[in-house]
Amino acid sequence: MTSTGLSLPAVPTRIVWNASLLAYNFGPGHPMNPLRLDLTARLAKELGIFDLPQVSLGEPFVAADTQLATVHEPGYIAAVREISRNPDRSNEALGLGTEDDPAFEGMHEASARLVGGSLAAAEAVLSGEALHAVNFSGGMHHAAAGKASGFCIYNDAAAAVARFLEAGYSRVLYIDVDAHHGDGTQSIFWNDPRVMTISLHETGLTLFPGTGFANEAGGPDAAGTAVNVALPARTTDAGWLRAFHAIVPQLTGAFAPEVIISQHGCDGHRDDPLSNLRLSVETQRQAALSISGLADQFCGGRWVATGGGGYNVASVVPRSWSLLLAVAANTRMPVTTPVPRSWRDYVRERHGIETPPVLGDGDDVWWRSWEVGYDPNDEIDRTVMATRKEIFPLHGLDPWFD
């Protein structure tokens, strides 16, 4: 593995992975292709990430119904079990057996295993065995308490949040950088003041699920704990990073979380077929670096990361998530690191896809900080200000200057 510059302190990191996670498979032609997970694991292995001395591999497990019921309604779990046994049926009222979420045999077990992966990551941090933990197969953020949605059956990230609450944590921060609004996780904790959900996503005016606007700010007992940044279509690196740094660090400081759980859908990449954002791998890596830094600053380093969306399964997802794993392991891996030839040859010969020669896209991630001032003629700035005006006063922050 390539490394440059000064060595970084080793951070005990748990990566949850097992090929059994590939069973979450909606069938041929569906965008949520488990190949993206297989190729990510193969690339991370060839880059040497799995073999770092500070990294340990954890096993996922099929979450029990009682664990699922911390965030899902018992009747919904029963319905998933039923359709898992009889996939020729559908329950469109619950989002099961639809075009987005086709039924398949063993769906309950496969979906509950994703939850078990994120719970295993959470347990590693809770026990002190790891400071950082990653389940890149997870991040199923559209699943609500009683309904499947957007390729998501059970919400593993929400279950991880609930596990920390169950363990006695009183302030859990969830940060979602997927191109799509993290609506399911937001809805589950809508009226819980112990949880702040922050979602940066393409505006619902142009992208599924059509929600996630600045005025969605939390329930009556938790005003200001749902935070939404609805970015314009075609937002590029500079605008995305400006928005992130104008909102997330300030609210993290005000909320003072004890742990951060983040969702790293990489479908905001400019080559992803299911969003209209124009981001690079460099920005997706920068998001991980920034979240890791916030965990260091406010949470004693405690950080659980999941995957999420990402539908350019060979050329984008494995590079983005391998860099996420490298950030979690606190190992220096430049975006100029070559993608191993053996991995590129495997993808070409096995799947007929030519992949980029280095981990990054070669983009500059400079952005204009909020301190230089608000520009009312800038669409990004208007989006940021809408969120700041809605949320900041509820936390004692000045939307213009903090």
From TrEMBL:
<comment type="similarity">
    <text>Belongs to the histone deacetylase family.</text>
</comment>
<dbReference type="InterPro" id="IPR003085">
    <property type="entry name" value="AcuC"/>
</dbReference>
<dbReference type="InterPro" id="IPR000286">
    <property type="entry name" value="HDACs"/>
</dbReference>
<dbReference type="InterPro" id="IPR037138">
    <property type="entry name" value="His_deacetylse_dom_sf"/>
</dbReference>
<feature type="domain" description="Histone deacetylase">
    <location>
        <begin position="30"/>
        <end position="326"/>
    </location>
</feature>
<keyword id="KW-0006">Acetoin catabolism</keyword>
<comment type="pathway">
    <text>Ketone degradation; acetoin degradation.</text>
</comment>
<dbReference type="InterPro" id="IPR023696">
    <property type="entry name" value="Ureohydrolase_dom_sf"/>
</dbReference>
<dbReference type="InterPro" id="IPR023801">
    <property type="entry name" value="His_deacetylse_dom"/>
</dbReference>
<protein>
    <recommendedName>
        <fullName>Acetoin utilization protein AcuC</fullName>
    </recommendedName>
</protein>
<dbReference type="Pfam" id="PF00850">
    <property type="entry name" value="Hist_deacetyl"/>
</dbReference>
